[in-house]
Amino acid sequence: MRRLGTPVGILAAVTAAFTYVGTVDPNDPGHYPVCPLLRLTGVLCPGCGGLRSAHAFIHGDLGTALSANAIATVGYFLFAAVWVLWLTRAWRGRPLRIGLAPAWWWGVGAVLLIFTVVRNLPFGSALAP
């Protein structure tokens, strides 16, 4: 049971964070700080809209979650899949090892960069929160 402590603890922390965001609406001003990059430059970062996305996701509104931040919404599903894999491996007594080649990390960085650039251009306004 001790080997399940870390994945269960991570799930508890994520659940607590999602519960808070689900309870305290980020669409109401004054509850959360403004993105510093957005405030200083007017540029949407890849995380802008993430809290609104999480709020919509927790309330079952997948369309709104995707429109607030598509990358974050995909990340929720990716986290769930990795967490299930982690828990299964921990249950079997094997460590979780995800060995991604550097090309994968460069690919993730490229997707985030493209997402950020496109959502800040006029034709990419559908990706803006």
Description:
The chain is mainly alpha-helical. 63% of the residues lie in helices and 0% in strands. The protein is built from six helices and no strands. The protein has helices at residues 5-23, 36-41, 50-58, 62-68, 70-91, 102-119. Helix 1 (5-23) crosses helix 3. It is globular and about 50 Å long.
**Cα distance, first to last residue?**
42 Å
The rough form would be described as globular
Number of helices: 6
Structural class: mainly alpha
Mean of residue pLDDT values: 91
Say how many strands there are.
0
Helix content: 55-70%
Topology:
Layout: H1 5-23, H2 36-41, H3 50-58, H4 62-68, H5 70-91, H6 102-119
Helix pairs in contact: 1-3, 3-4, 3-5, 4-5
Give the gist of this structure.
The chain has six helices and no strands. It has 129 residues and is mostly helical.
Features:
single chain; 129 residues; mainly alpha; 63% helix; 0% strand
